[in-house]
Glycoside hydrolase family 65 protein
Amino acid sequence: MNQDYIKPDNWSIIEEGFDVERVKSSESLFSIGNGAMGQRANFEETYSGETFQGSYIAGIYYPDKTKVGWWKNGYPKYFAKVLNAPNWIGIDIEVNEENLDLHNCKEVRNFRRELNMKEGWYNRSFEAILKNGTEIAVNIRRFLSLDLDEAGVIKYDITPLNKDAKIVYKPYVDAGVTNEDANWEEKFWEPLEVKKGTNEAFVTAQTFKTHFKVTTFMHNTIFANGENANISPSTIDSTVDKVQYTYGTIIAKGQTSTIQKIGGYTVSLNHENTLAGAEKVIKSAVALGYDALLQNQIDAWAKIWEMSDITIEGDVKAQQGIRFNIFQLNQTYSGKDSRLNIGPKGFTGEKYGGSTYWDTEAYCIPFYMATKDQQVARNLLTYRYNQLDKAIENAKDNLGFKNGAALYPMVTMNGEECHNEWEITHEEIHRNGAIAFAIYNYNRYTGDYSYIPEKGLEVLIGIARFWHQRASFSKDKNQYVILGVTGPNEYENNINNNFYTNYIAKWCIDFAAEQIEKVASEYPADHKRVMAKVSLSANEIQEWKKVADDMYFPISQELGIYLQQDGFLDKDLVPVKDLDKSQRPINQKWSWDRVLRSPYIKQADVLQGFYFFEDHFSKEELKRNFEFYESFTVHESSLSPCVHSIQAAALDKMDMAYTFYLRTSRLDLDDYNKEVEEGCHITSMAGTWMSIVEGFGGMRVKNDQLHFSPKIPKEWNGYSFKINFRNQILKVAVNHNETTFTVDGDQDLTIIVNGNPVIASKFVQIK
């Protein structure tokens, strides 16, 4: 834990007191989004202190030219940047002819932020004494509409406390923005058109290179004590990429002046004419009005929470943590659009390029399968199917593979590889396995097999072809090996025979071969279509199988464990507990050379294989491997604590499971890795959900049935969650005395609890 200023609360994230050192961290933590767009919690008014300005639009990116010290064949041409979108929230404010800037006020008191997760709004309030002696109380509420998802709303109230005040509002829209994260300091936006109306303004710009067109808009209304003041702007200033209006008001001491600002984006992904689309959005939002928009927001979030909420009794920090994770996941991805995916930072920052990683398939799909309609998860699978041709191009053009072998990119926005570190881009090839596993996992959970003959089989074949060609035969070992890789533990590069990579490669080939047979038997028309399209023969499948059947796995017979890679035991095996705390996190304290030679593990690696393929190993094998590798794991990846929490719970190490749960759920709130100001770790938040449902709840799917082995941390009085399993809603409630299963509906559901079959109906109680 590196910070502890967020106030414990069941439903809200709360900060009290103004501290300039916390501004950027809070901008991340209080971020808001609605699936279509999002923004950091930047101040609407001028702030001259340190800040990280960021607004983002789903699906809009820029191909920033790759910057490397030494170019090598195969490097991607660009690193995709999620763009800092034009600013629509800005409102410069003058009070008695002094600019409001919290960095320059005489005093700021009673400063408070609240992110109300239950209702989906962000509130900031404070009292300030300006240098001119005027004292004001300010309250600002902002939200991004879930229903009208191209629009956001700001209500900005100012009350003079010690004298009458002349208040001047200067709202603006501005496309002259830059990215915090840019390789060459290029401009990303080209202004096209500015349009001004009575109280509304529009700036249309397009991205260089990718030519996404965006109209950024605003509509302003001034109120005095809650009544529309019917004020038009006194001046209108504009440039090629910015429009700013000025509204002057006089307000008596103790009275309240308000500006309500509606703003947002319309994009060419969804509109042929983005300006006309923006005018339509404003018309709809103004017709509803602030109160109705807010109530619709509250109602929409109530519907989301009805299905996705997890309750925890007796541990407020744990409760706050899981709801923060669930809230951010729902803000980031709604599942409406199969062109979109889940960036590691969501709408909270620019690090990692805001693109698609293997995190989606390995961690996020289980959350969306269980808390949404299954179509949402299917959309995520369809996203990869639609990019299969690009994955084949990536393997062919960058690595020299042939015959339709597919290597999905480590990082992508449109299917092209856009990650610029060789040891990740071309060595961390295990991501191919996560994509195949997600297809298997989707079918296992939903029972919907149709995706495989329709789309998934082509993906599986491309991936199997890749593994077949990537493996090589070792005469020394008389087995197939996979050389020069990076496993999930990115603190080892260019190593040989990473256990997880070899294991998932074998599994992918076996699974693809099984599905080819099944589709041939049960979906002959699809089988004929796919085989003709990919030109796959029985002889080729037999060649695949030779690789899978004779895959090499490094093992230590003495320790009874699988080796993370061939040379792991050659390292200086000093456990983490003996590492000086002043050296943590090692990725910020040590040279990369020292990190690579150390035994320290960034995240689950061998244990990632045990997580995916739990049924392939005995409990004793899990115990030996867990106890060995956890002792060397520094958990400096956000994806690490959740897997360890699930496996600790499976091994009845409940104190450890709880500690890991708290770390994954409060990773950003408590800033464990000293980096939250860069944005929140969105994709790992799905792992937090898994820590409860799969860890403490023990939920598994085996032989088309739900299995549970419920456990509860001693720190909790009880917990509950809901899942949508094959269109049946099951609520699970656990306390120290009993577990209750409730089915929503009249149809019974047979489940397995602690190895025993139970028919769950409207109310089933298991002692």
Observations:
- The mean pLDDT is 95.
- The radius of gyration is 27 Å.
